[in-house]
Amino acid sequence: EALGRDVNAPPLPEDGPLEIARAGRAFNTMASRIRRFLTDRTLLLTAIGHDLRTPITRLKLRSEFIEDDDLRAKFLMDLDELESMVSATLAFGRDTSRREPMGKLDLTALLQTILDEAAEMHPDIADAIGFRAEPPAVTIHARPVGLKRALNNLVVNAVTYGHGVRVTLLPPRPSEAGETRGEMVTTILIEDDGPGLPPEDLERMFEPFVRAESSRNRETGGTGLGLAIARNIIWGLGGDIRLGNRAPHGLRVTVTLVC
Predict the structure, then answer these.
(1) Where in the chain is the domain with CATH 3.30.565.10?
(2) Rounded to whole angstroms, how far apart are CA atoms 26 and 37?
(3) Largest CB tally within 10 Å, which of 35, 107, 123, 211?
(4) Is residue 172 within 8 Å of 187, Cβ to Cβ?
(5) Alpha helices in the chain (DSSP H)
């Protein structure tokens, strides 16, 4: 259970009866291999992203010498998109390797801050951004910076594609079978009134660099890493995240966090 929540959890003791000691050693060997695999993947990802920055900069400089204004603008637009994807890739790599300590966190205040910041960024739809009902006071143990980034990604997605967001924070309750392991959990519902997603895309949207068909333009498309980053962070806290469509339209993100 500890390894599922934190890949850097302390190793199991390797003593006791022979069968238990052997099982402990085998488990610790497996955990070490998992950590090495994740570290290698992260280093590869960030190395590629870092090395791409120099040629992108060179191409931008050379593009300025293109005489055709329309062609130059198209080159620079493509390079800007590529640069954005590289930056997001580096951020994704940093998130998977971050060792931010766990701490006590006022979840209600964190959500309010995220919603206030979203309303400031979109004053034209500020009335459509906020809590659906007065939230309860909820305190959890989490990584504050990581959790804020995860929840902010979800709120920004709702505002971008749903033109508004309503958040519901439910009071803590005992976990159910299949969620966690007997702890108290709280649930956050992040809802919008956008077009929603095809049912077959609801799980696929968590894969890195996957974007919905309606978001594959340079103005709103992003890089396809926001949901992948959010799920990595939330899973790292022992929680869960799911996407679902609302009736008659709209998307609902359900986040479960251990208190």
Answers:
(1) 103-258
(2) 17
(3) 107
(4) no
(5) 2-5, 18-63, 69-97, 107-121, 144-162, 226-236
- CATH for 18-97, among 1.10.287.130, 1.10.150.530, 3.30.1360.140, 3.10.350.10? 1.10.287.130
What residue has token string 């995220």? 114
Q: Which residues pair with 106 in a beta bridge?
A: 139
The model's pLDDT over 199-239, given as tens digits with 9 standing for 90+, comes to 888 888 888 777 665 544 445 556 677 888 888 889 888 89
Where do we find the tokens 């997603």?
197
Amino acid 98: pLDDT:
56
Cis peptide before 208 (omega within 30 of 0): no
Residues making up the chain, counted from first to last: 259
What local confidence, expressed as pLDDT, does residue 9 receive?
Answer: 82
CATH of domain 103-258: 3.30.565.10
